[in-house]
Structures
1.
Amino acid sequence: MLYLKAESADKTDVTLQQQITEQFSQLHKEIRLLPAQLLLSKEQVNELLRSINNCTLQLKQPVQNRVEHKHHLHKGIWIAIALFVICFLLSWGWLNTYKSVEQSEANDIKYRYLKIIGNEWLLNLCNQTDSMYQKDEELFRIKVQQGEQYFLQTGELIHPAGERKKKQKK
């Protein structure tokens, strides 16, 4: 500031110097206030210390990773399993139907053979059987099933007696 106070002949230079000295004095005041503005308040410092302490405590405790294994099948696998089961059931049903059709065809051929080759008595029996079946199909079916059951039961009773006779012959 000493340099600025040099005497000058012009008044304009003097006023310019005064303005410059005022600006410098204001700048000097602002620079003196700057450290006060930059300093943190005690509350802010305490809050910052608390948060640092919390962070250090959290870092001291290791993070526990819990791994859960979830096994699941995707939709595609479930669809494939369902299609496999459906194909298996359809194949099984088709095979059973094929066997029953074969059995029906065999029975048809046997019956037709009996009608062609049979004698008069056998032809009369076949015709009577046909007429009884056509008269009441359900009753005819029930009587046939009852007859089969009777033969199975008597066969089970006769079978042990037949085995005893075979043992006696041996």
Note: Residues 43 and 141 are 103 Å apart (CA to CA).
2.
Amino acid sequence: MKPTLVVFARAPRLGRVKRRLAAEIGAVAALAFYRRTLTRLLARVAGDRRWRLALALTPDSGTLHGARPWRRWKQGRGDLGVRMARAMLRAPGAVVLVGADIPALAPRHIAHACARLRSADAVFGPAEDGGFYLVAVRRPGLARRIFADVRWSSRDALSDTLRNLAGRRVALVERLSDVDTAADLARAARR
């Protein structure tokens, strides 16, 4: 069975996305960045036959314009961990969940994570800021407990999540940068 790729995103709405970035560059510019990054990511992964694609969007009433060659899942209520677990539990088998604000994220990163799941229970794509841009599990049921007591939006998010996987086989893939600040955006533009 093909793994499920879940793109976990916010509906691109002014004032609702990339708030830390918006505080530095303005809400319109932050929205433009987010919309462009999300659109590019979906375009890169939508036609790939190695996985089944689902878009988990919040708010649940949120929409995207254009063609939709993917399943649309609601994130529902709860903190980030609850919503990510809910999305992952909907998958019938192996699942890879990625964030939507990683400009360098490409199909090869997702394929590498899928390959690593052959010998690992979970795979993470570490982010430069201490979080992660990708989480994959071989069996969706594992998502029920891995996001408990995680200090989200902190440099401890990945280490807290890894602590919840003690005794499990965990693999890491390439470290990438997300964009939360104007300095992050400038670094991403140089790459």
Note: The longest helix spans residues 27-46.
3.
Amino acid sequence: MATFLTTTDSSASIERIIREAEGSLTLMSAFVYPRIVHLHRLRDAGERGVQITFTFGKQPMDKGVFRDLRELPNMRLYFLRELHAKCYFNQREAVITSLNLLGGSERNNREMGVLLNATADAEAYRTMCQEAQSIVRAADLLHSTVPDPELVKAGAEVKRRAAEIDAPLDAEGVPENAILKARKEHPRAYLRWTREEDALVIELLNRGVARLAISEVLQRQPSAIAIRIEKLRE
């Protein structure tokens, strides 16, 4: 039977859901700045083989938090700008709540939520899982540390193909010092896009390769990849 949760109850239940996850774990939070204990629990989960799906929305994540999350094992990070829902679930329990995964929310806000049990609340739990899966399908995969031989193979193959594309001219209107600085880490930064590169971006997206991996394959800045994807989708 569903259980009502206060702010503190919601936070404690989320931590327990992460700690007790087996096989898979799904987290959805519009805004993200997790407490250190949540990061530790997520690392523990990833290291014991739990595959973590983490979807956030509204705006780009804090760079430090994004760095911390993308270094966790067995983590898939998704972004959906329209996301406002917050839910957290493993194979046995789910929390649907107003609480974002923000340390400040627990300290400063009055939140509430509901705890569902996969057995006692089977129909509600099943419907929630379906909606969560629909949200993930609509989101963009930004980064993945989940081992996938097919994607590793795809990356190696496309790196070779990308290296064979002739470098076009520099983009217009970009200061030379900005170009030189960016190319220390991303050798193809600020080069004009080619049809061949556009085709590779679309192919990699269709094969499920994350944006950050596409950036590494094409040797372009992650922000440039994001902008190009939006343009290709127009």
Note: The chain has ten helices and ten strands.
